[in-house]
Specification:
alpha+beta, eight-stranded mixed sheet, four-stranded antiparallel sheet, globular, binds (3R)-3-hydroxy-3-methyl-5-(phosphonooxy)pentanoic acid
Length: 324
């Protein structure tokens, strides 16, 4: 029996300029470019073992055997890798998240980035960073941003070859911390793959897309110049724009909980009183609160005391996906 195996680790990421909507659903070509920060310590570690003895792919996620949607999605993804490697071997995939299961955090970015690296390595495919990022994109769009390290931009491209992510600054470039306030531990009811399909039904999406190059420029410059005020303004605007599109699509998607909104107002208040903080929300109710490293302990402390906050996770800028 032959076993081809590899293990890889990849961090989750928080989008500062969000990806919402696809130009091509199958290829996961995004309607707009996006920028994110990798989250150190919030990772998926995935072991892939291709074995001739397996009659089908198997997925164990945080110790539990998965069937249904999660398995089907992984099998379709592994088919892409098998096609590149010209093999029909099935795989046993064992993946663990470092962050608490059920914390309501999107884990597909870390999961598909780790799976891309582990699966290709196991089959002896030597892909460079751009090629890996392109592959990870096919599993979950935002996963392409979890391949490079630090602060990352996804170049939307016009086709499969030109749509991948690059690092615009390494993790040590800027001492930022993301304090993630968990207000709702349940998985979201509409996942982002379904959400992307609805984006174009909002009359606001075209305006959001038309203005995206401007926001990308401002965000990229703010990162390169370590300008927190500029980053705060553009990050909050971008998050609000995406949620406005979500709330006005058909059917509408409301990811915020009342405690999410209470926190947004509170964070604006803290900033007006001199604390360098800003917020961003992905497709869920949990609030990512970015701050300078030297303010992070205070931010975490305040968040932990805030009504409705169940738990606070913290992450500095993280490195690239890597083996083991
Ligand atoms: O990669 P997906 O399909 O899970 O989409 C991610 C969507 C957001 O998290 C809401 C935004 C983003 O850019 O990460």
């Amino acid at each position: 029996m032959s076993i081809l195996t590899a293990t890889a680790t990849a961090n989750a990421n928080i989008a500062l300029i969000k990806y919402w909507g696809n130009r091509d659903d199958l290829l996961r070509l995004p309607s707009n470019g996006s920028i994110s920060m990798n989250l150190d310590g919030l990772f998926a570690r995935t072991r892939v073992a291709f074995q001739s003895s397996l009659s089908q792919d198997l997925l164990i996620l945080n110790g539990k055997k998965e069937t249904g949607k999660a398995l089907t999605r992984m099998v379709s993804f592994l088919d892409l890798v098998r096609c590149q490697a010209n093999t029909d071997l099935n795989a046993l995939v064992n993946s663990e998240n470092s962050f608490p299961t059920g914390a309501g955090l999107a884990s597909s970015a870390a999961a598909f980035a780790a799976l891309s690296l582990a699966a290709t390595h196991a089959l002896g495919l030597e892909l460079d960073e751009g090629e890996l990022s392109r592959l990870a994109r096919r599993g979950s769009g935002s996963a392409c941003r979890s391949i490079p390290g630090g602060f990352v931009e996804w170049l939307p491209g016009v086709d499969d070859r030109s749509s991948f992510a690059i690092s615009i600054a390494p993790p040590e470039h800027w001492d930022l911390v993301d304090c993630i306030a968990i207000v709702e531990p349940q998985p979201k009811t509409t996942d982002s793959t379904e959400g992307h399909h609805l984006a174009d039904t909002s009359p606001l999406q075209s305006a959001r897309l038309a203005d995206t190059p401007r926001r990308l420029d401002i965000c990229r410059q703010a990162i390169l110049k370590r300008d927190f005020d500029a980053l705060s303004a553009i990050t909050e605007l971008d998050s609000n724009l995406m949620h406005a599109v979500m709330m006005t699509s058909s059917p509408p998607l409301f990811y915020w909980q009342p405690s999410s909104l209470h926190l947004l107002k509170e964070i604006q208040d803290w900033r007006q009183h001199g604390l360098p903080v800003c917020y961003s929300l992905d497709a869920g109710p949990n609030v990512h609160v970015l701050s300078h490293g030297d303010a992070a302990a205070q931010v975490k402390d305040r968040l932990e005391k805030f009504p409705g906050v169940l738990q606070v996770l913290t992450a500095k800028p993280g490195g690239p996906a890597h083996l083991k």
